[in-house]
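step 4 of 6: structure.
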Amino acid sequence: MFNSLSDRLTATFKNLRGKGRLSEADIDATVREIRRALLDADVAVPVVREFAAAVRERALGVEVSGALNPAQQVVKIVNAELVEILGGQTRSLQLAKTPPTVIMLAGLQGAGKTTLAGKLALALKEQGHTPLLVAADLQRPNAVTQLSVVADRAGVPVFAPHPGNTGATDPADDTVIGDPVSVAREGVAQARAKQHDVVIVDTAGRLGVDRLLMQQAADIRAAITPDEVLFVIDAMIGQDAVTTAQAFLDGVDFTGVVLSKLDGDARGGAALSVAKVTGRPIMFASTGEKLTDFEVFHPDRMASRILD
Ligand code: GDP
């Protein structure tokens, strides 16, 4: 991810090398290049516009004297703006004062929620927590099995709906009949009873945003009052990321974003747009299929990686 954006920005900065002082025309040309590079990387248009304006304003205001040459000053400004659109500070999980901490996952089908549930559970377990996974995705018949597999790999228990709760699979539409809201509620109650200090609730996703799905996620949220609602988004989906994120923000609301599939070679604009557009911090990044391919998201490190 970001290789091409990174190359484009580096080439732009190279053009400034050796310049003693930047004229307004130099700055405008540079900002134009940066704007093109961001648009080509699929960054959302309003985000690009704001970014370019901020870089221009700061570059025009730069003092001539100082330890940094003009090219270095522009890099510094772009770096600061990148950190800003990526959310500024690193934001860690908010743990409940009275356990269990309830974490709900939301996002489209295939976004990487189930995988993330395992990754998060493993990371928390390694920090000494005792997570319980809850399978409240009853939309796909094998979602419960998939979460159980992931839980096994992470070495943590899973609360899955008992028979009678899931009901039968309706072969006509591939839907498991059941009540995900009760499963989520029972899962949290189970965590409390068995003294798990964190409970991670996996929920259903559809291929596209869908009113019923959104209502279901909102109902689960209302039933379990989570401390964190993490919206998982596939960083490879490009421009669609912003509309999807906005739909989840309006329909369910979330406290943080997890970018998945950051190991992909897509253009990465989703990663660069979502925090700014939603006003919610990116908290974690998923970078592969293994449970250890997971990291806390640091806006400053990501910015440096892009400008490396
Ligand atoms: P869910 O439908 O949101 O629960 O998504 P899944 O967790 O089932 O993930 C969908 C697919 O993406 C699976 O094949 C995962 O192995 C894969 N996947 C999930 N996260 C990542 C990631 O960070 N990188 C890569 N390359 N693949 C991932």
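step 5 of 6: annotate
 - The mean pLDDT is 89.
 - The beta strands are 101-106, 131-136, 158-159, 169-170, 175-176, 198-203, 228-234, 256-260, 282-286, 294-296.
step 6 of 6: archive
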